Amino acid sequence: MADPIGTAGSGENVTGEAEPGGRKECDVLIIGGGPGGYVCGIRAGQLGLRVIVVDGQPLGGTCLNVGCIPSKAVIHAAGEYEMVKAMASTPLMGISVDNPSVDLAATRAWKDSIVARLNHGVGALLNRVGAEVLVGWATLIDGKTARVHLIDPGGGEAGSAESGGGEAGSAESGGGPDTVTVSAEHVVIATGSVPVELPNLPFGGDVLSSTEALDLDEVPERLAVVGGGYIGMELGLAMAKFGSQVTVVEALDRVLATYDKRLTTPVTRTLPSLGGTVLTKTKALAMTSDGLLVEGPDGQQTVPADKVLVTVGRRPQTAGWGLENVALTMDGPFLAVDNRCRTSMRDVWAVGDVTGEPMLAHRAMKQGEVVAEAIAGMPSAFDAVAIPAIVFTDPEIVTVGLAPDEAARQAEALGTRVVEGRFSLAANGRTMTIEPTEPPDHKPGSAVDAGFVRVVARADNHLVLGIQAVGSDVAELSAAFGLAIETGARLEDIAGTIHAHPTIGEGLAEASMAALGHAIHG
Amino acid sequence: MAKQTINVPDVGEGVAEVEIVSWTVGVGDSVTRLSTVAEVMTDKATVEVPAPMDGIITELGGAVGDVLTVGSPLFVMRGQGDVDDDGETGIDGASGVEAEPVISPPPPDGITLRPHSTGETPSTESPRPAPASITSAPATQPPPPPTPPRRRQEGERPLATPAVRARARELGADLRQISGTGPAGRITHDDLDRFVQSPPSTMPAAVGGTPMAARTPNASIEEKPVVGLRRRIAERMVAATTTIPHITYVDEVDITALEDLRHQLNRESRDQPRAHDRPHLTVLPFLVRALTNVIPDFPHLNAHMIEADRGGEREVAGAGTDTLRIVGGVHVGIATQTDNGLIVPVLRHAEAHTVWSAAAAIAELSEATRTGRAKPQDLTGSTISITSLGPLGGIVTTPVINKPEVAIVGVNKIVIRPVWIDGEFVPRKMMNLSSSFDHRVVDGWDAANFVQAIRTQLEQPALLFIDRYEPDADAPSPVLGQEDDRG
After folding, report:
1. Domain B229-486 is in which class?
2. What is the pLDDT of residues A258-308, one digit of tens each?
3. Over the stretch B315-370, which tens digit does the pLDDT of each residue have?
4. Reported pTM
5. Number of compact structural domains in chain A
6. How far is CA B202 from CA B177, B187, B199, B214, B215, in A?
7. Which residues of A touch B148 (CB under 8 A)?
8. CATH class for domain B162-214?
9. How many beta-carbon pairs below 8 A join chains A and B?
10. Class level of CATH domain B3-119
């Protein structure tokens, strides 16, 4: 996997106390500098623990380097480009544009600058609390010791011109020892996850993982996306907006199958409107000279494709760091942890994607915080009621808490049922002001196309169990949704809260009122 | 509106000020005539101040611990019916059926609190949905009491905000064991506080929980003002221990013979009809008897140490010279535990009591003290004290002298111990006496001899009843005559 950039941030945090010959001691050794690892490092540093974070890649992990952040940058750029393209054909909001074009290499450079800034920021945060960063790959020898193979940040391929990274890392540069043995009271495994590779479509060449898809310099004319999960849909839609002819190949009967159908319907209409196609119940077989050979309900066919993006999921990174030397108890493919993120070995902890679903950065961050506090002797635990999830498609999807069917199941088990309130964003003033056109097949009262906010609550005491939304710019509502559920709000609490006008967030209050039977605008 | 101010009553005994010990009501509470409103305390007695009429308390004259002079306002109340005089009572009689017209909040001073007007009662036709009952709706209604905690079902996750969850973890409290009074059964910070202060007495066996859950650290702190009797005890203890150099002397007493005698007498009282009205005998009256027998040989132990005025002492003797006031009568203070604390009622002129009369008087005094009926004269003027914890007596105590006395005798518990007598161990009933003396006026030698004298009396109980040898007294003493009268 390509290391996109060598960064200043990682180099600056090496405090350079490695003895020649390479031994270091610390309270907390964190393997992996992603969201779980670096948050753990910062919190542990705040709590006065001596911390060493080891990562062979720039700080921030998948999320910051090849995941959440760069993908959102690319998705945003694609959305803007699509808008001006639309304006070029038909003026929108009174604006017309001539001959818009996109230089994907420049888009990439813009994205990389964001990533670099954040890499640097993470490094600075760790530095500020006195945490040390070792650039290299760690292998656990036992539950208290790791051997770290250092990557020389001052030289080699990573030492690019933009980094200036040699300044503080010079202790190791120029022929220093290339391994360090680190002894730690506590070890935190934060090794994350990697894209799943299909045996018949190994990564490389024209077969891309999400990582490579974010580093394209040119828009592929034809792109096949294997796997219609959230990563495939996000990137597939972005590429379609950049002008690629996108075909999504999904083995199940619909895309975004982990979300309920009502929520995903608005999203499924977007790709066709951009000239793309979704093939469901279809399996990818192999790359051919013409494109991607697939097999669906109607037999085999070749999907025309110059590139194939494989997004069939991610798997925990359980290899390459010495798991075999510590023999931790597993939970399926994941490391088994309890609610304080303890593994089966004393003082060995694990956070983030390597510990299970949902593989989301914010879950890892909270776990990292919990572990640091637990190591410091605080009674912290990972006891979240809900972990929000967002799909940055067009429109966006937010879910927090229980989906309607799961909520109904749980309520029934408790001898009650659920009530549901939905508010169509077609009736939301703010949504209208940001949508340049009326949804093509909008019918008054239709809840579907402009999206909606939906609240699911217990019928007996109105405790809110789940909130979902689909619509433009609804991702930011996740904060309100999460707060409501985490604090145990009832429908009346949300309905009784004044929501600013005009905002999309009004939809939350309206949906709650709808569930109570008295929506104002719904 | 008729308000009545109730002043601090004159409790007699020339007391000029009282201390508020407790309020049984608060502002806005309704009281019935003669129900207790306050407890005030004088030097020695606690007095309950009742309400003179049915009504509502509108003002309290001070906080617990405040000292008020006799005659100053103690509390203000107004009658129950006064409000209705300004309202609609008698027009339709409706107010009569309204439950609890006023409870709280209290009206601001001088403003009449009106009961809900009849126009707002739900009995009038109204387009709105009818309120549930006549007692609902009025604006003056107190906030509803917390709804009874909703029972969570098994497996249902306790509902609590992240802050409450974090605090529960810090306190080691298991949220699954806590009932929530918040919306939808949410566990509030208050619920958590309540649980931590008084976890349920019967902890359910942790269902699927950690075995640790049954024992939780208690982080509660309660601050109580040291007032009333407790304050007085505290002051006296400080005064006694800071001014008196105590010497404590402990010796053991073989009271097997005395116990045999005592049991014999108590058995008779129980078994013989003619002895039924005799008081039950404890060790105390015998000890009192021993004291009165030996004190003539140690007169300066039955005394008051009057300190010269060096600032603060109440009893003043000559300029700068302390005085030892040796008292002829033996007034025995008997330290008694009450619900409020230690009180020392006084058996006056113990030297004039028989064992029987002393037993009866002690029982009566203790009872009066425990129930708060002791009169001031029952609680003052002791010249020497006895302290006993009964069966709790322990092996050794270090009694604190009841100032201004100079001696106190502590009784420890009676235990059967093997004692080496005539070449063998024999079981004997043994009791320790732990006695403290004011070392300014009592030397260790005297102290030891005094205790030995008591010991001798108790070990050979016949001595208790042997007349003191008076070489120049031919005639029976008046004291003996007195005893005969009483016997």
Report:
1. alpha beta
2. 999 999 999 999 999 999 999 999 999 999 988 999 999 999 999 999 999
3. 544 557 889 999 999 999 998 888 777 888 999 999 999 999 999 999 988 888 88
4. 0.58
5. 4
6. 11, 20, 8, 9, 11
7. none
8. few secondary structures
9. 37
10. mainly beta
